[in-house]
Amino acid sequence: MINATAPTHETPRRLAGKVVLVSGGGTGIGRAAALAYAREGANVALAGRRAAEIEATARDIALAGGDALPIVTDVSQEDDIRRLLAAVTAHYGRLDVAFNNAGIIGNFAPITEQSSEDFDRVIAINLRGVWLAMKYEIETFLAQRSGGVIINTSSWLTHGALAGSSSYSASKGALDAMIRAVALEYSGQGIRVNNINPGIIDTPMARGSVADSAAFAPFIAHTPAGRLGESEDIGDVALWLATDEARFITGQSLLVDGGYTIAGMR
């Protein structure tokens, strides 16, 4: 007798057989997304500057029965990006999804207290690095004639501001503008390009930017959801955007901030 309350077959995993590249995959949002992609059946390539962190994520994926490839990469270096894409396609034979998540906060200070080198570093990683990644990812998709999905990490600061954020905000505001053009250029080839704009997320990078956790209290008080975001809140959205459930979405910058930005508009 069949138990009617029990499933009669396993639910197909949404990214089974797909190859996903995650930059900044060693900690925070990138790690959460990488684990989510792997749970849904994807083979995951992990890019990051710190070998120990991406190797740890790869081990956790392997322990859960998945497949991951860590590749040390500095996304601000064009040769590194070229080598990264070559390594992914040599190992897995293809690329289906790229989550360009690597980024830095930089010197969070008033503009007169920042150097031109501070500005250049933030732009090199947060904006130029994503431009380079998309360029070579799209070339890979076009060579495969298979379409593809690109997701980038932007910021709620494209809709607001914090004192000290001039360089960081410039990098993310330009990123939101840039993906609209790229989405138009390649939608006809089956390539979707979107951004996720996280709110205040409890990540090691965010924790490292403040003196102590009390600094987050005003953000929590101002967020209708009543808490900081977790890495998984963004990772799950990055997963969804990679699936066919989001097949009609491109050129968008999606706020995922627990209502923080809306509350600021009241």
From TrEMBL:
It comes from the Bacteria. Its EC number is 1.1.1.47. SUPFAM superfamilies: NAD(P)-binding Rossmann-fold domains. The keyword Oxidoreductase applies. Gene3D superfamilies: NAD(P)-binding Rossmann-like Domain (3.40.50.720). Residues 18-203 form the Ketoreductase domain. It is an enzyme of class 1 (oxidoreductase). InterPro entries: KR_dom (IPR057326), NAD(P)-bd_dom_sf (IPR036291), Sc_DH/Rdtase_CS (IPR020904), SDR_fam (IPR002347). The keyword Ligase does not apply. This is Glucose 1-dehydrogenase. It comes from Serratia ureilytica.
